[in-house]
Amino acid sequence: MATELVSGNEACARGAIAAGCNFFGGYPISPSSEVAETLAKILPGHKGIFVQMEDEMASLGSVLGASLGGAKAMTATSGPGFTLMQEHLGYATLAEIPCVVVDVMRVGPSTGVPTAPSQGDVMQARWGSHGDREVAVLAPASVREIYDMTVNAFNIAERLRTPVVVMFDEVLAHMREGVELSAPSHDELWRRPRPLEDPGPSFRAYLPNEDGVAAMPNFGDGYHFHVTGLMHNEKGFPTTHPETIRGLMARLKRKMDPLPFWLPAEHYRLEDAELAVVAYGITSRVAREAVDRLRDRGVLAGLYRPRLLWPVGAADLADTLGRFQSVVVPEMNQGQWVEVVERYLPSAVRVVSRSKLGGEPMTTEEILEGCREFVKKGVRAL
Amino acid sequence: MWKKEIRLAGSGGQGLGLAAMVLADAALRAGLQVSTLQSYGPEARGGASRSDVTLCDQDIANPWFSKPAVLLALNEKAWMKYGPELAEDDLALVDSDWVKLPERRTVYQIPLERIAKTEMREKLAANMVAVGALAAAIGRIPLDVLMEAARSRAPKGFARINQDAIRRGWELMEDLKGGVDRGGARGA
């Protein structure tokens, strides 16, 4: 297979095709536009449908409708559009409609800087939609990983019947790397559970299987079922019954439990490390170089890189980083995921945020500077 | 480890994105690891534009760099912004019609746009003259590989022009390098 020069956004579009995506509804916005542009070109050739909608609310609406009709459906946007999609994301969570939403982060709030990167939407992805919902948010750090994680996102969305967000930043979106993109085999693609019984009055559309996920027929298959954003019973009809609501909420949370095992964090040179850096996305690429440079100078540094931002792989995080005296968390925001690190590590661990704003990634030198105070005396000066 | 961090700087519409693609594509064909980054404002033309290319003989851990080791500056503004950061042994190429240099600075100087305009009859091919010159200065990418990358990446109707421009840039740089080796000036 030949190595090609591919951008992050193109890799995302091609990952979607590899995953079997056959519907894209979206509204172009920098710096995500090339995802839509690429799919507009190649999706029709894969028997898929591309629709440019009138705005981002309608975009995700069209995706949810297509998914209920049986399509593997996706949209892509950036901060301002992601904000408009929050309502439908909540709806997709409660109605359990599989879909993939790509958020390419740019400087915000509001329209911010359309062509410059940030990692400012991390908390929005977790808490942006109301109502105490569990979310799935993936954070790739290379062109190759954007391709792979777009496939992962479809797999998770289908198997768990949930919206899945893939988030990266403007640099990764427009960065080109030499990659070999090998399509996953048929067996590597997961499908939504289908009902085994024939259509009939006893069919219950929200009766969960062992995984806590209900079988999902397509609209038009002959099954009668009801889809709503109201709390509902196993037939899909509205309820205010407290026990039913508690059961449904617990199930929606529990079904996400396997995610940290499917997408474990990367541990880089952590085994004998005395100083840990925690970073994700493009910042983790810079942090990796900083760790190597620290090692060159005799500082035992390592990198912990979450590939799944939400739900947090708390057990692995605590097991891996609990023994450190100091953990440095560089981010292109005012300190968002650092709060997660603080929450799950013992209070004896000093967790320090290193923030960079302004639309430029952190540099290796800035991460080194951010580690300086934790380097023992006697080590060659940074 | 051999690694070159290259910054192509000018203004929007000068084809720096394509220049980066051709350079990176050729390097990939020559067996190197590559990454490219671009930076631009919201406007399609005008405004500062910049493309960064990293070439390496190993995996590229970090594609983002703040200071390049090779700089192409197509205008004065780009030179003012990135030129001062260069170290003494870093490599720089400027469009000598558009960039006024401090006298003592040793920089490769070629009137890129003038050559494209007069010899290729296409001002826009200045980016490819620059690509040819840069590749010749950097080494590691053979001319025929570069020409093939340029052909495959050329916009419709531009393959010939771009290849001619690259060959011309390559020749000019070879001459300049010879001049420098003989202790001569670096200007074309």
From TrEMBL, chain A:
Task: Quote the Pfam families the UniProt record gives.
Answer: PFOR_II (PF17147), POR_N (PF01855)
GO MF term (any one) = oxidoreductase activity
Oxidoreductase among keywords = yes
Q: Name one GO biological process term.
A: response to oxidative stress
**Domain spans labelled Pyruvate:ferredoxin oxidoreductase core:** 273-367
Q: What keywords are annotated for this sequence in UniProt?
A: Oxidoreductase
Residue span(s) of domain Pyruvate flavodoxin/ferredoxin oxidoreductase pyrimidine binding: 15-244
Name under which the protein is recorded: 2-oxoacid:acceptor oxidoreductase subunit alpha
What species does this protein belong to?
Answer: Sulfobacillus benefaciens
Automatic annotation (TrEMBL), chain B:
Q: Which domain of life is it from?
A: Bacteria
Give any GO molecular function from the UniProt entry.
Answer: oxidoreductase activity, acting on the aldehyde or oxo group of donors
Q: Which UniProt keywords apply?
A: Oxidoreductase
Q: Domain Pyruvate/ketoisovalerate oxidoreductase catalytic spans what residues?
A: 12-170
Q: Which InterPro entries match?
A: 2-oxoglutarate_synth_KorC, Pyrv/ketoisovalerate_OxRed_cat, Pyrv_flavodox_OxRed_cen
- Name-wise, this protein is 2-oxoacid:ferredoxin oxidoreductase subunit gamma
Species this protein is from: Sulfobacillus benefaciens
